[in-house]
Amino acid sequence: MNGVLLVISGPSGAGKSSLIKELLSSVPDSIFSISTTTRGVRAGEKEGVNYYYVSKEEFEEGIKQEIFLEWAKVHENYYGTSLRPIVEFLKEGKVVILDIDVQGHKIAMEKFHKFITSVFVTTSSHTILKQRLIDRKTDSKEIIEKRLNSAVLEMAHMNDYDYIIINDDFKEATKEIVSIASVAKNRTKKLDLEKFISKWLES
Ligand code: 5GP
Fold this sequence. Notes:
- The chain has 203 residues and is of the alpha/beta class.
- The chain has one domain (4-202): P-loop containing nucleotide triphosphate hydrolases (Rossmann fold, 3-Layer(aba) Sandwich).
- Helix content is 45%, strand content 22%.
- Helix 1 (16-26) crosses helix 7 (170-184).
- The protein is globular, with a radius of gyration of 17 Å.
- It starts with a strand and ends with a helix.
């Protein structure tokens, strides 16, 4: 498997989705891992583009059938990454972008650490994050409070990531994440050393 996984986590409102859009348009062979979720469709989102939207029962059946590489409950909804497409993308040599939470990152690391480069995206302050969530106009006051509370919990896991991006200046943050994605393929940890060296010796 020659591809790599670029795991992106961070509080809601930190700008992960916009950064991912930039990555997909500028990093060759990049592809977004579309998660499955039980949360409702937000305005502007599309089935099979942002997520696969399923019922709680369908998701729980998926857990039973062990179709997920990882899954987690975030803000009272289920979210999961299907294993099969990830393996296919890795075989195809893709830079697979996963937008998953800190719990998902931890589980993915248990099985796929060799392939993972991880980035934590946040803002420089709680105030900026709160303002972004308010400006986004997608969530009620209560939901915004919940998201801000989980932001604090997520920030406590920042050290588990390879890189941190402070997304106050979008242009700067885009440059940084594109650089990280561009070198992710050069990780040595994913190499099958024996194969690499014997090919190197033969050529
Ligand atoms: P949102 O509802 O704002 O799209 O996502 C809420 C949170 O769920 C975000 O932190 C996002 O990274 C996380 N998330 C989205 N998909 C997955 C997934 O497949 N697995 C896990 N563990 N978290 C996910």
